[in-house]
Amino acid sequence: MRGTVWVSTLIMFSLLFGYTTVPAAAPNPMETVKVKIDQVIEVLNDPQYHKPAKRDEQRDKIWEIASPLFDFKEISRRTVGPGWERFSEEQKERFTQVFTQFLGNSYIDKMQGEYHNERIVYLKELVREPQALVRTQLVRENVALPIDYRMKLEDGQWKIYDILVENGVSIVQNYRVQFQSILQKESPGQLIERLEQKLKNRQQS
Question: What CATH number is given for 29-204 in this structure?
Answer without folding.
Answer: 3.10.450.710
